[in-house]
Design goal:
With 154 residues, the chain is α+β, with helices and mostly antiparallel strands. It is built from 5 helices and 5 strands; from the N terminus they run αβααββββαα. Strands 1, 2, 3, 4 and 5 form a 5-stranded antiparallel β-sheet that branches.
Length: 154
């Protein structure tokens, strides 16, 4: 999947007025839309430590029900909450900036819609730092009872 996403990011766009691409132009990527891969969400990539007061050995550091690209029609999925078809949306938006990042939309196995940006030939360290900052802000908001009550997050 990584190679196919990179080919989407590196796809040359000669027409500056073009605002969208079609997933039909990337059939190998579209075919990977029904796989057992976990959708790379921040909560799926960050391990949660158990509370210090917890003595339970059943702590789950990662979510057990993380959404995947896999559809419910797959034979070994029997959980009742996996009822949606996971897929890439056909339209790929080209953002208006110098790098022209591509926005892809994915409907996960949980029915939620997730959007991701693919940036061609870009230094992603600044983006990673911003994600780390957002993660710290979310932890601080989660620690405060008033912000938890108001469901605040980044």
């Amino acid at each position: 999947m990584t190679n196919e996403l990179l080919s989407l990011c590196d796809y040359q766009i000669n027409d500056d007025s073009r605002k969208t691409l079609s997933m039909k132009e990337f059939p190998r990527l579209a075919a990977l839309g029904n796989s057992q891969l976990i959708i790379p969400l921040q909560e799926s990539l960050s391990a949660n430590l158990p509370p210090t007061s917890s003595l339970e050995s059943t702590h789950q550091p990662f979510p057990s029900n993380a959404p995947t690209f896999e559809s419910a029609s797959h034979p070994h999925l029997v959980a009742p909450d996996f009822h949606q078809l996971a897929e890439f949306f056909d339209e790929i938006d080209i953002m208006h900036s110098l790098a022209k990042p591509r926005k892809i939309t994915i409907q996960g196995s949980d029915g939620q819609v997730y959007m991701f940006l693919g940036k061609p030939k870009d230094d992603l360290r600044k983006d990673a730092r911003l994600m780390d900052f957002n993660s710290i802000i979310n932890k601080l908001l989660k620690a405060n009872s008033e912000s938890r009550r108001r469901h605040l997050r980044e």
